[in-house]
Design brief:
2 helices; 79 residues; rod-shaped; mainly alpha
Length: 79
């Protein structure tokens, strides 16, 4: 007996993939914008000597870079 899954069976799978791609791109755009914002915050606070805010800007840059890499990988994986 040959039993294989029918991936074309569920209706609406194309729309679901399209929505997932749109959400991944939205997250990618927001992550890049936050990277720019936190980079500016980090640069300004480091140049003025506000090291507490500089550390928060540095952390924000790292988190937004991670989010950008993960969402970019998600887009690549979905394609």
């Amino acid at each position: 007996m040959d039993v294989f899954p029918d991936f074309g069976g569920p209706s609406g799978i194309g729309e679901l993939c399209e929505v997932a791609r749109a959400l991944f791109m939205f997250v990618l755009v927001v992550a890049v914008l936050m990277l720019i914002v936190f980079g500016i915050i980090w640069a300004i606070s480091a140049s003025t000597g506000n090291y507490a805010t500089s550390t928060k800007g540095h952390t924000g840059v790292l988190v937004s870079l991670g989010a950008a890499f993960l969402s970019g990988g998600g887009v690549r994986w979905m394609n």
